[in-house]
Amino acid sequence: MADADFREVDLFGDPIMPRHEGRGRPEHIRTLENSNKVLLGFARGLTVKEAATAIGVSVPTLRKHYSSEVAQRDAAAVRFEMVQLHRLNEGAKAGSVSAEKELGRRLEKARIEVLSDQVSRNARAPKPEKLGKKAAMQREADELRGQYEAPPPPPGLLN
Known about the structure:
Layout: H1 32-44, H2 48-55, H3 59-65, H4 67-71, H5 76-93, H6 97-123, H7 133-143
């Protein structure tokens, strides 16, 4: 068996590249598998550094070879969810009862999340501060305006 025919893989399934003569590391080769890993990492909420670590490259290498994926980072989770819902909807249109039930569950869950966000936003409204008797009396005294609000002006020059 020739070395070119046998490819070993490490613990994470990445191919072990044979040592070659020359300076520096070999250029990273973009693959569809790594692209999908990066997108799934972003959909999960990983940072750029964590996504680079997940595929075994540095952050500059990730930005160089996977710039389109990095550009989609903020929308990855929403896009992934929409792809799943679309696939469930296609399955339901094809007559899959389980896809229809799962689609209904997911849509209901999304509605509950929206309501939960609305309720939590209303709960965060500032509530009036409760004061004890002494603090309430001090606040009333501080707010009292009248004849002695400001000190009288100093006397003018007598000469």
